Amino acid sequence: MNTICLVVDRLHLGYLGAYGNTWIETPAFDRLAAESFLFQQFLIDSPRLESLYRSCWRGLHALCPGDREEACGDGLPRRIAARGTPATLITDEPEVADHRLAQGFAEVVELEAPQEAAAARTVDQTHLARCFSRVVDWLDSARGPFLLWCHLSGLGAPWDAPLELRRAYAEADDPPPRKSADVPDRVLPPDYDPDELLGITQAYAGQVSLLDTCLGGLRQFLAESALDRQTLLVVASARGFPLGEHRRVGPCDEALYSELVSVPLLMRFPDGLGGGARTQAMVEPADLWATLLDWHGLSDQARSPTGRSLLPLARGESESLRDRLGIAGLGGERAMATPAWYLRVAANAELFTWPDDLWQVNNCADRCGQVVEELRKVLAQYEQATQSLQPPYSTPLDAILCDEMD
Question: What end-to-end distance do the CA atoms of the chain give, in Å?
Answer without folding.
Answer: 49
